[in-house]
Amino acid sequence: MKIVNENFRILNVKTEEVSQIFSRLATKNDIFWPIEKWPPMKLDKGFEIGSKGGHGPIRYSVAAYTFGKSVKFKFTKPIGFNGFHMFEVLPLNNKQTQIKHVIEMNANGRGIFLWFIGIKWLHEALIQDAFDKVENYFQKDNKETPWNIWVHLLRFFLK
Known about the structure:
By secondary structure, the protein is α+β, with helices and mostly antiparallel strands. The protein contains 3 helices and 7 strands; from the N terminus they run βαββββββαα.
């Protein structure tokens, strides 16, 4: 089954400033990933092509990287996830930047079940939390996208 999942957020911030935050993803100084609420993203060799890592039970390797602009990860687990996920930092104009996350994969067998029962919902919440964290870094308001009831239930039962 073909699955395409896209999330994006438009920030009223120059691309260069967002790129600086993005370049710290999966490092000791990460201020992009919402480690306060979710398992950290870890990579054994940073953004070097072939570097292995993941977050929680999701495993992947770095397939492509452009400093401060994009990173593409190829899924290695769970079984049944055949494809990639990626982050991009895209300039819209001199004062606005879009941050984007895309999953594009062919799910089969157990992977279809895992996606629709749990991972899809947890993934959506995680990405919105990451986008909130980046947006909050640049503004005084504290944006917090609420989790839906399914995310609360899944997190309760997965403890």
